[in-house]
Each structure stands twice: as C-alpha cells, then as structure tokens.
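Translate structure to sequence.
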C-alpha cells in the first residue's frame, strides 16, 4: 500500500517556492495519500492543491490557545499539526527547511510516524554560522529524524560537517515541470543587441553587482541590453549597491528594471533574452545558496545558456564539459565577462551547448522522475 504522507510547510506558499508546489502536486498524482498542513496561506490562486489543511482556517479560540501554548515554550510545534497527522493516520511527516524540521520534531513522535526533513539553503549554512545555538539544535534533529534530504553533493557534505550521520543524508534533486518550459534554442545575431537577463531577489548572496560589472565590461566590446527582474525583499542596502554599479558602468540607458514578476511572467520574459547570469556568492553573514538556484535549471530548460559561479551545488547542475566557459569564481566580474565573451565568439556553438543543457535538465531535474524517486525513498523508509 502507498504510504500516507503529511508535508509540513509553515506558509503555503511563497511565490519563490514553485519547486515545492511542483513536487507535492506531482507526488499527489503518483500517490493517493499525500496531504499538506500549514500555519498560513498565501498565493492560493497560484498554488491550489488538494488535501491542504490550514491552521488559519480553524476556530479562532482554538488557534489562540494553540499559539499561546507554543509561545510560552511548552512545545515548539502547533498541536494542530499533531491533530491533523493523527486524523490522517500519517506514516511519514515530511518537514521542509531544517529550522522548521527542528520545531516539528515532536509531531512525528506524537503521531507515531517517521520523520523526513528537507534542507534547502539558508538553513544549512547561514543559520549555524550566524547563531551557534542552531548547531546544537541540528544535533538534536539529526539524532531524532529518520532521513535528511538535500539537493546536491555540496549540501550533503555541509550537512555531514554539521554532524548529520552520512547514512541519513539522501540527495533529492530539485524537479521542474518540463511541459512549462518549451525548448527554444537561443541564437546570437552579432549584428543585433545581445540581451542579457538577471533574475533574483536583491540579496548579497545573489552577487548581482558582479554580474552587472561583467555586463559593463561586455558593453565596451558588444552591443548589449540588460534586464533585471527582482527587488529588495528586506532592506535597500543591496539595491543601492546595484544602482551604484549600474551608474558606474553607464548601463542605466541599456537596462530595464522590471521589479518582481510572477513566476509565469518571468519565464515568459526570459524567452526574449539570449543569456542568463546568476553569479551567486557567499555573503558576508555566511548566507549561501546551499544548493543551487532553481532559476538556473529553469533557464537551461528554456534553451538559454546560463553563466554562473563555482558556488555550492551550482557546478553539479551544469554539465562538467561546460564549466570552463559557463562558470566563474565567486566575486570575479572579469571571469564572468570572459564567459560572455566566449559565448559571443563561439555563437555558432551555442545551439549545441543549449541542447546539452536541456538534455541535462531532462535526465536529472524532471519533476515526474523526482517525485517517483521521493516515493521510493518513502517506501524504503517504511
């Protein structure tokens, strides 16, 4: 029989978590007993899903009591999660993000279920380095949880370094719905502008100033146009840096600043561009991608060459044969420019490059395959 799975996602669902929606909705197609429990609902119009149980949809008095008990420290999780797990007779509780998994530790114990926790990025590197208490908390989590999932070998090594037993760490790659990304190989016409795309939140770890500097260098040799999708989610510090670098490189007249777009709008806009740059770095507070940005996978799927950095699991999602021409060391704008230069000077080979990038995505990041793999992980655990 198929196992009964209850996913815990504190918020269902931020706009940037399309990959989680894809995985769970695809899992529901392959297994009949997959449910989700959350504390808050957002963006339901984009992420409608079956079997969603939301705390904010419960009786107001019961909510206040549940929150109060958690707030005074009697327990770290909502009893609503336990009540839902028991009602569904869940075999496995699957928590998303390591810090949330630590808070959820009491849920599988009370439900009498196995516990699976997936780590994604900030929870792996930034939290333990910025606040040492998370090292102890993760030590508790690693002892109690049954399986720890992550998206690539770099993150797996990071978890083992944090103290997770190697036998509990399993790589579960990010999957995308390939039908949403028609393959349209980009073609360079060196007599027309080369349109370059950057799409990311304005956070230090995204390394956007270095990508802009590289585009600035390219503008001295080629006719380029730049589009930036994204904005500052928390503070304007990084945004001010980005604006300053655009000014220093005289790129304002050549740049479109589109702010945040919906995921569908971003993908639609991407087809108007020739090159995508995602120059991730390790931020000053230790924040990293942890694994690799899903945007790289998506852009490769569309048929666009991607220039990125030797950062976390990014080298794992780009075929090794293209590392020399598509990857640059962190914080190295000149090396990023050399990647742009390579693509321009070898524009006749771009079709072959993007075909192999798409092939790489199809073989490793197809959400149908990844959901099947996750099902096998569940079944083996039980």
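Result:
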């Amino acid at each position: 029989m198929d196992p009964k799975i209850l996913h815990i996602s504190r918020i269902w669902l931020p706009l940037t978590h399309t990959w989680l929606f894809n995985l769970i909705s695809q899992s529901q197609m392959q297994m009949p007993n997959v449910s989700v429990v959350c504390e808050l609902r957002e963006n339901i119009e984009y992420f409608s899903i079956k079997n969603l149980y939301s705390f904010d949809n419960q009786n107001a008095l019961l909510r206040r009591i549940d929150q109060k008990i958690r707030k005074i420290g009697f327990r770290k999780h909502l009893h609503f999660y336990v009540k839902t797990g028991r009602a569904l007779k869940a075999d496995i509780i699957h928590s998303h993000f390591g810090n949330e998994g630590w808070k959820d530790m009491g849920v599988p114990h009370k439900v009498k279920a196995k516990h699976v926790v997936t780590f994604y990025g900030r929870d792996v590197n930034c939290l333990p380095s910025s606040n040492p208490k998370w090292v102890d908390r993760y030590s508790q989590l690693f002892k109690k949880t049954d399986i720890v999932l992550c998206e690539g070998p770099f993150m797996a090594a990071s978890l083992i370094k944090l103290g997770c037993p190697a036998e509990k760490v399993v790589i579960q790659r990010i999957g995308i719905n390939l039908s949403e990304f028609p393959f349209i190989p980009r073609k360079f016409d060196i007599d027309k502008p080369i349109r370059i795309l950057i799409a990311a939140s304005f956070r230090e770890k995204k390394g956007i100033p270095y990508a802009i500097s590289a585009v600035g260098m390219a503008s001295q040799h080629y006719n380029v146009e730049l589009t930036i999708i994204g904005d500052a989610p928390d503070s304007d510090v990084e945004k001010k840096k980005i604006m300053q670098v655009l000014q220093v490189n005289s790129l304002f007249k050549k740049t479109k600043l589109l702010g945040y777009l919906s995921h569908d709008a971003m993908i639609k806009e991407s087809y108007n561009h020739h090159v995508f740059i995602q120059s991730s770095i390790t931020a000053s507070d230790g924040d990293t991608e942890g694994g690799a940005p899903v945007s790289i996978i998506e852009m490769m799927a569309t048929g666009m060459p991607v220039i990125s950095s030797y950062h976390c699991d990014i080298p794992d999602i780009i075929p090794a044969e293209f590392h020399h021409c598509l990857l640059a060391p962190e914080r190295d704008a000149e090396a990023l420019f050399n990647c742009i230069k390579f693509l321009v000077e070898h524009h006749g080979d771009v079709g072959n490059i993007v075909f192999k990038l798409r092939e790489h995505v199809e073989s490793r990041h197809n959400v149908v395959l990844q959901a099947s793999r996750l099902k096998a992980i569940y079944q083996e655990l039980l």
